[in-house]
Amino acid sequence: MKTTISYPAAVLVTFSLLFSSCKTQKTVQPSAPENPPEVVEPQIPVEEKEEEPDTTKPAEVTQEELPEEVTVEEEIIKSEPPIDVAEFRAAWIATVANINWPSRSGLPTAQQQSEAIKLLDFLANHNYNAVIFQVRPQADALYQSDIESWSYFLTGQQGKAPQPFYDPLTFWINEAHKRGMELHVWLNPYRAYHTTGGEISAASVVKTNPEMVVKLQNGMYWMDPARKDVQNRTAAVVEDLVKRYDVDGIHFDDYFYPYDSYNGGKDFPDDQTWNTYKTAGGKLNRGDWRRKNVDDFIERVAKLVKKEKDFVKFGISPFGIWRPGYPQSIAGYDQYEKLYADAKKWINEGWVDYLTPQLYWKTDQTAQSFPVLLNWWKEENTKDRHIWPGINAGLIEEEGYENELFNQLMITRGMLAEDPGAVLWNLKALMNDKEAEKALAENYFRKPALVPPSPWMDNKAPKLPEVLTNLDGNTLRISWQHPDENDVFRWVLYFQYEGSKWDFKILNNDQLSELKTTLSYLVGEKKVKLSKIGMTAVDRTGNQSDFKEIILE
């Protein structure tokens, strides 16, 4: 994919001002009194914190210490649960060049599926809640399609189906949903052939529709974004995916018009469509014309997705800099003028449900400052869509930047406190770094999280589940019923022990043969009692039902 922050010198300036304002002035000291007053050192109060009980370990109890049954003292219905548990946590799974999956082309089905399970288990075990899976790396398909041919990166030959046959996308969707994760399909809208894509077969669009494509100097082929048949083809692919598959999102990356480096620094070779436009009386200059080609297509896809399924998100991960000088301190590549991608317009117009600018730079890289760029994109979010930045996990591999990923996650949580989230690039780096993996699991993603809601898509919450309890020894068995389980994607059980803060469990439909779970009634050495519980139902767009706080006797 892709393509890094220094905090402004304001902190250093402030420090120097403070220091200079404290310069010692020469003064005449009076003689000390005969009986100097007693000097009392100021005491800084130490906050006394009552140690919270350990609620993770069931207490060792006898039957006599337990009530015969747990009764409900009071039930209080509230519009919101007691704590906020939402944060978008996603990772890209790249199939182009076999970056993430499968490890190489032509693997047998069983090995492909085994590798997919390993990746999904890693994400689930580290409390991610979404995966962005590349299904169209070069006008091909990692799923059964009547529009485009099977991908070389899957089978080693474009047009050849996997053996034994299966549909990889169906497999990925089912396995992701079992683990409570959304699956967004990632498409390259215009790339026709990648240099790692093997021999250009008869099934490739380069051979079947040569009029659609142009060759770039680096060996890639690119579909011309100005052509209506190109736009129609990619739109048909999107429509087909949304109609036939239970996807949660459609995702484009930063490749619209190609990077000029792909063509040796030369301009994109679209003279034919440009001259046709001018001959027909077109008034726009070439740059504006190219941007309009892309803008029109983005708006079209946005409408198409919602027409088919209103719960499917449409997201784009553009290059992280809109234009140099926006904001003033930023320098670097100009996606507006070079990729003809006006990502600022897409978020201003509300065409996308989420924007994931690829902010892959280091925190001490002044001209591409992570927090400065993130704040600029946040301020451009005039329609209150999601801004979830792309973060480069591979920075942990560089000496001196082992904590860069975690620092950027905390910056993101601080700056996007009302709607936190991020998408991680370079999953392989994390999986190869056991220390970073452990830090992520034990600290930054220690607890699971819900995908934040998207109220412009759907603001109707599911109905409240009805909760029942039954004490079995020291185990409180909790079951629940819901009037419309088809409206529920996940469940959240909230609970509180005496003297402790609220805690929670997120439960996935497919992990439960019945709607049941358990909690210990008494926990820890002090045998602390479970005092409150409550449950919410969560729908496909992240809406939570009302919360019924159940106070136990």
UniProtKB/TrEMBL annotation:
<dbReference type="Pfam" id="PF02638">
    <property type="entry name" value="GHL10"/>
</dbReference>
<keyword id="KW-0732">Signal</keyword>
<dbReference type="InterPro" id="IPR017853">
    <property type="entry name" value="GH"/>
</dbReference>
<feature type="region of interest" description="Disordered">
    <location>
        <begin position="27"/>
        <end position="61"/>
    </location>
</feature>
<dbReference type="InterPro" id="IPR052177">
    <property type="entry name" value="Divisome_Glycosyl_Hydrolase"/>
</dbReference>
<dbReference type="InterPro" id="IPR003790">
    <property type="entry name" value="GHL10"/>
</dbReference>
<feature type="domain" description="Glycosyl hydrolase-like 10">
    <location>
        <begin position="87"/>
        <end position="396"/>
    </location>
</feature>
<protein>
    <submittedName>
        <fullName>Family 10 glycosylhydrolase</fullName>
    </submittedName>
</protein>
